[in-house]
Design brief:
mainly alpha; 0% strand; elongated; 155 residues
């Protein structure tokens, strides 16, 4: 059997411990924080992790706010970013379509993030245990904060 590379050890650990932070993963795999961080940032989260529902990643009794935020982060920085492209560009396009449809001109990309968050909150009224809506709401808020900062930096 061939010896595993550092990256393979890290991904194997992450698959078994999807909520593990960069620090925890580095310590468990005896690799540097910087290497793990660079690997996670460069490659993103493996598809196997992203496709697992959160309930299967962490038992119900141990889901923490950090687990939720980590999973939301892996979604917006991983598969969804790869699938949908730049959130800023996507939200700007959505804002333009909404403005055209409504015959107005004041919806901004950050408004899209807020309105999509409200959409997820409305869905939670029907089923507050649906973790996807909690995760997506966190993700939309994070993207909105990034978009606002991006626009502030351009002024």
């Amino acid at each position: 059997m061939a010896k595993k590379t550092k990256a393979e050890k890290i991904w194997a650990y992450k698959l078994k411990n999807p909520a593990a932070s960069v620090s925890e993963t580095a310590k468990a795999t005896k690799t540097s924080y910087g290497y793990v961080h660079k690997l996670f940032s460069k490659i993103g989260t493996p598809k196997e992790i992203l496709e697992q529902p959160l309930e299967h990643n962490v038992s119900r009794e141990t889901i923490t706010r950090q687990d939720i935020l980590n999973k939301a982060s892996s979604l917006i920085d991983g598969s969804r970013a790869a699938e949908h492209g730049s959130a800023v560009d996507n939200f700007a396009t959505t804002a333009a379509y909404w403005n055209a449809h409504l015959g107005i001109d004041w919806i901004l990309p950050q408004d899209v993030a807020l309105m999509m968050t409200l959409f997820k909150i409305a869905r939670l009224r029907q089923n507050e245990e649906n973790m996807d809506n909690w995760l997506d709401a966190c993700g939309y808020m994070a993207l909105g904060g990034e978009i606002v900062q991006d626009y502030a930096d351009k002024r």
